[in-house]
# Entry
Amino acid sequence: PTRNTKLAMMQTRLALLPTTIAGGSGLLARASFDRELTEPALSRAEELRKANDPTQADAVLAEVQQREPADPRVAMLRAQLAEQAGDLVRARDQLTVAVELDPTVPLAQYELGRMQALLGDRRRALFFLDRASVGARRGSSLRSKIEREIQLVVFSTFEDIRLAGLDAATHQASAGTALSCEVRLHPMAVRT
# Structure
């Protein structure tokens, strides 16, 4: 075959490839899953969550996740519910599933990094936060959150320090004024 024939054959093969990624874009982009199965369950779980029934919302999501395990949105919502219930290990596990399903989503990487930090694994926290930072758009609010979380992991002793008794206009203390200091430790700085 001539060069032009090879090119024509290659173009024919390329034309046969699917032009869209299964699932859509964003969290839907990399994983192939049945949206018709997961969409109603996600909507129902969100309704239950808003109605203050997180246990039932998680049960709905657990059922659909068993039938359709490839939708990262289900894992993300289950992680949010687990975190709200105070089960950080289960939240981390669900976020791990979401990142494994689509490792290109900065939000999932950020949440997993944040969860690793809350659980005290600074090394893994920084790994996922760094990956999220690379994928997040510069100047975006997500990028700002990621950078702040990285700072908290690296410099994680204090979450907030406030001085009381300063003049509001000058931020200086008058002679004889008593000052008080309020220090709030970051959760990662507290050793149990």
Summary: Residues 19-29 have pLDDT under 50 and may be disordered. The first strand starts at residue 158 and ends at 164.
